[in-house]
Fold these 4 entries.
Entry 1:
Amino acid sequence: MRLEGKVALVTGAAHGIGRAIARRFSAEGAHVVVNDINKKGGEFVKQEIVESGARASAIPADVSSKSQVDAMFDQVFDQLGGLHILVNNAGLISPMLHFLDENADEKWWQKIINVNLTGTYLCAHRAAHHMARNGGGVIINMSSGGASRAHRGFAAYDASKGGIEALTRAMALDLGPYGIRVNTLVPGSIDTSDMTSESREKRGENIPLGRVGEPEEMAGPAVFLASDDASYVTGHVLTVDGGMLSQQRSATADIFPLSKYPKLL
Ligand SMILES: NC(=O)c1ccc[n+]([C@@H]2O[C@H](COP(=O)([O-])OP(=O)(O)OC[C@H]3O[C@@H](n4cnc5c(N)ncnc54)[C@H](O)[C@@H]3O)[C@@H](O)[C@H]2O)c1
């Protein structure tokens, strides 16, 4: 019960990593506000949490819309009396387009930047004003390995995540004196879209731990950053990727392949 008595807002919590974090935060004693643009999905996760015996609310909103974000925060402050933890998890990955694709236009760029980067800013801005006046708090952002090593066809996405890492450091400096810690998680290849067993296996081959990650494996690091166990951790980028970003070449292209590893009894 490391988050007992806390109110935590998790954006994009109807599915995947956000859902796993929302469920785990509630199991750790927090009252979780499940946000998502998908109203039905958000209600479903709220219900799952309530049925587990914990407390939760669901507030649908598009994090890229300032008016919807403002209405959501007003509702949180009015109904729950405050906010201690914000997880900026909502994110758009697709459409993936080559930089020279005719559809890789300003509209495509703006949509991904608006949800991922501006959405993070809008929610963090409202939360920070409240937390700074109410004894501090914790903000956790969600980056990607794409912030430091590019994916093919992901220019807008990778740029949005690079922005999130820079924003994390900038907010950590400005907000530290007000008792607000700001960190970012970097998920690796996490199976949130029901990959086939074949693609799970193929992806896993190139990951040092030998497998893709589960959404629940993002939840423990999120609890750590949200809790007092991380009371001296701010401006940090915590990578949770089975070692992916540590490697120079993929396992299949390496000059010292897995087949040469010693067979231990
Ligand atoms: N899954 C991975 O392997 C992986 C890897 C790196 C980074 N990430 C990041 O982790 C976060 C979660 O990813 P996921 O795989 O769980 O994604 P997901 O698609 O499973 O879930 C994302 C959720 O965000 C919601 N959402 C989308 N746009 C929204 C908006 N404008 N306002 C509110 N909610 C919105 C969706 O409805 C969905 O429920 C994202 O920021 C993603 O970029 C994921």
Entry 2:
Amino acid sequence: MAKIKTITCAFCKGKGKDPFEIMSKEATCQVCGGRGKVAVAKPYVKCAHCQGTGVSPNSRNVCTACGGRGVISVTDGKKVCSECHGSGRAAESDLPCTTCGGRGVV
Ligand SMILES: [Zn+2]
Ligand SMILES: [Zn+2]
Ligand SMILES: [Zn+2]
């Protein structure tokens, strides 16, 4: 059985507000719904695509690989992506690895 752990929301850094104030200064964080915390199933690893920030690189969007939580749950069956070796990036580019979708694990 997976264990659920509550962690600080990476996208808003626990503030519960939209970090980019796209809608308004008072807009709630779309990742955690304003709670500042998100629940993830253990075990998990830091998202390789966004480096754990929850923000898609070079954008203001929620990271598509981790959904903005900054971490990705892994199961025992998952292993480091052989294509990107866990970096989550395609070779010689900033694009997410197509094999693992930027997760770094498959
Ligand atoms: Zn949040
Ligand atoms: Zn991510
Ligand atoms: Zn990969």
Entry 3:
Amino acid sequence: MSDTTTDKKRYFVASTAELESNDRVIAEIQGREIAVFDVDGEYYAVANYCVHQGGPACEGLLSGTVTVNEEMELSYDQEGEVVACPWHGWEFDVKTGEHLASSEYVLPTYDVVVDDCKVYVEL
Ligand code: FES
């Protein structure tokens, strides 16, 4: 019988105040660069490693995206939730890590814990 429990460790990334004044903080944790994004007070941790060709995906422009509804009306949504990799512009949802055009491409995501105004990533 095998033990299926995993013991994750917490790694400090930033204070909530630091994340409030920056839209993201990138930290090196256990040899990986991980970005934590603040989206309206909710925190999301994403690998800063693009699944296209290894670029620093989380260092790119943070914006929203244009969508089209069934009536062919355009709208601008997800402001502050979409990061564009600076190498070739692939866009990812920072909440899920998914590429906007093709969900088969996903940046790894990590659990985030907030404790006493400190933001941690769990690995
Ligand atoms: S390496 Fe990120 S879009 Fe190409």
Entry 4:
Amino acid sequence: MLLARKGHRVLLLDRDRFPSDMGQSTHLIHPLGVAHLRTWGVLSQIAARAVPFTDWRVDLHGTVLEGAPPAVDGHDTSHGPRRRLLDGVLAEAAVAAGAEFRDGVRVVDLALDDGRVAGVVTGGADGSRQVERARLVIGADGPGSVVARAAGARESLVEPVVQSNIWSYWEGIALDHVRLYIRERKGAFAFPSSDGTVLVAANLMHDEFVRARHDREAAFHARVADVAPDLHAMLPEARQTEEFHAGCTRAFVREAAGPGWALVGDAGMKKDPVTAQGISTAFRCAEMAAEAADEGLGGGRPLDEALAAYAAARDEWLLPYYRFTAQLARFARPTERLATYYRAIRDDPAETARLFGAVALTHSPEDVLPAA
Ligand SMILES: Cc1cc2nc3c(=O)[nH]c(=O)nc-3n(C[C@H](O)[C@H](O)[C@H](O)COP(=O)(O)OP(=O)(O)OC[C@H]3O[C@@H](n4cnc5c(N)ncnc54)[C@H](O)[C@@H]3O)c2cc1C
């Protein structure tokens, strides 16, 4: 969408048939991501079906912090749209901007010219292969990225799966904010989603999650009743609208660009979902990569130099959030210094907002949190 709007010829490929959903992710979008949706002119379509909300109530090991994460460019709302809504709106906007979108087309490899990426190879179920040539290939193909693998993007800072989520959706819960409960080795959260539903989720450490694989429903209820009894008490009066979902991930950082290729979103960096940063991060990276690509393809700067600058800027921006997220995902008992800090900021709305900003990608965690 962004490159098509800048006048470039864009071919957009996705292996799924649209509209498609992504059942393995919750989908809270922080004000940073929502500000991108607004800039791109698609927010009203999302907001029509996924209500806005601003406030958070975060219970950190018994210290309750209330407030809202900082606004971004004057924009302060979050939304929790289902992915079939979000992805559909973005794909339509890309087509309206002039991109050619082919769904149901799987990329299986990269085409190379003298070691330089020069397009993609797509593959049909019948074993057929087709080459699509391009001066630049952007891999936005998720954590199992074929583009990353074929380009040889190096992986670093790998973290194993630490915690896992079990969640579903309910109608009839009066909740207009984010609720987050963090305890030692356990947690729960909830926020409004699409079409009048509220998402309620349990956090289990991964070993527990594996043991609970035969009865996720029981594990969900036991965990939410334990750490969030006030939230759990709302469920019997409400109607669960679908089966339970479950998801988790290992975390990694991949090189974000090389000769003729770039990675955005989870293809380039995958964080634990505990900070719900993935979608907002993907939007910001798409914006940064599109600016670099436009500069390189338009002749303002050598393409590879522009892409290398994108990769460096991405790392500089995101690595502090990556390290913070990895730490939070352990659901560890806070150090005395951290527990004191949480208590100290409880009645300080500005400091609370800064801490929430470390989650919502507006304040670098290294500037906000005390050293452990
Ligand atoms: C349990 C869980 C909860 C989460 N909760 C949140 C949350 O609340 N908020 C948040 O912001 N993030 C959350 N995340 C993270 C979020 O889901 C990801 O960061 C986000 O989906 C990344 O988007 P993406 O477009 O980079 O990748 P994806 O969403 O994985 O999309 C990749 C796309 O590429 C396509 N594709 C893949 N391979 C190919 C191929 N070979 N050829 C063609 N097409 C291909 C796929 O069909 C898909 O459409 C969560 C993750 C998990 C695991």
